Description:
The structure is a single chain. Helix content is 85%, strand content 0%. The chain has four helices and no strands. Helix 1 (2-26) runs antiparallel to helix 2 and helix 3 (58-83) packs antiparallel against helix 4. By secondary structure, it is an all-alpha fold.
Amino acid sequence: MKKTLIAILYAGLILVAVGCLLPLIFGPHSTVYKYVFTAGAVLHLVGRVGLPYRGPYLRVRRLSRILVWSGLFYCAGAFFMFYSVDPRDWLAFVLAGALVQCYVSIAMPRAMRKSRQEGR
């Protein structure tokens, strides 16, 4: 089950990236990218919710919960892809989700290292 959720998570991230690149390749008048991005956002959210960190480190657990927000930001971006004319709306949510992931990718190893040194 865990391997399946990891595969779903990574497939969602790939679809989100492809959904962001398609308007650059084919132009914003194509509608395929909306469905690709939405499928990726939903898969990413399912993967994040299904894979919580269950280890002993409280800081890492909190950072893992923050990662769920990146999936929520992507889903909000998918909503604005369909219901907003201005592309800056959905791009803002995509960038917010990406920033959350970048922050956690830097903070999580530091938190694990610090928690191991403290012995907690």
